[in-house]
Amino acid sequence: MGLAKQPTGKLDILQIIKDLGFVQLDTIQNVTRAHHHILWSRNQNYREPMLNSLLAEERQLFEHYTHDASVLPMEFFPMWQRQFKHLGEHTNRSGYYKNRLKGKDLDDLLARIEQEGPLSTSAFESKVKGNKAMWERPPHKTTLDLLWYSGVLATSHRENFRKYYDLAERVYPEKLRKKCIDDEAQLDWLCTQALSRLGFATPGEIQRFWGAVSAKEAKSWVEQNRQHWAEVEIQTASKQWYKAIAPLDIEQRLADVIKPSSRLRILNPFDPAIRDRNRLEKLFGFDYRIEIFVPAAKREWGYYVYPLLEKGRFVGRIELKVDKKKNTLQLINLWPEQNVKWSKARDQKLAQELTRLARLATIKSIDCEKLNQPESG
Question: Strands 241-247 and 229-235: what pairing?
Fold first, then answer.
């Protein structure tokens, strides 16, 4: 997932995203938003304004839904038609989206976007009628989402992370919109590309990679394409073995594996390398959950806690936040993993990484008082 080599050198954002497959977007800005952090982790020459340029100006990326809102390379668009179709059908059936605009109100919403250009939810004023239930949104917001999921509307750009919707034909290049790929070919591409990026996987891991195929489809693909993959056995962190599949060139891939960088890395909780928590724990013995939606009194660790990666091992986790008034990055807590001796050398490595992360987020100072007194894991 691009974390073994030093995160330096010539920056090619689009190639990083192609290699990853997608980059998840997230609204929470703890230090920096997840998508910026994920790209910066692969090349620390990256800076926050760069991503929107590829999305909004160069149209090299498009935004849609994998397992969550994400940006994908625009060249993947023809292989994403099944996702537009399936999500459009799902959201139309879902009771969560029943409160939506219809008839003339729907026509008026589309007409405004056609005439005025990209608009955000703030351009519309429909209200929830009657008693507002939890999570219920005004009809225009629900409708914009429905049209976005189904591919009628597309993300034109974002301003301060606010999404602007435009007609799909004004965002997606015509040659890609007219390229028709049958559903079976799309499914084959999605599964093949997932396996290629994972290196080895179970059918469930293939299914979870994009979130664009069902568990049944992934299992069927594995069974019907035995000539295109090799069976392998993987040893877990707990020394157990399990069967998986891998690309046919798995031996060459293993031969080409580079020695991981010794740099201590602060990873984002939504980084693709750790997104599949079950796979993460199985392979690295690292039990990690994000606790932002857990009540404070019930949290085991903290609100926004980052995994710490050193070489090929997760050595700890760290809770950070920003004091906006002081423009200071604060280290709230640091927990080494069990059987990890936290040394002065690691203190220095972490201090260096915090300095680099602060530079990304244009934060002027760092409060590292907790560095010399980490809590036990």
Answer: antiparallel
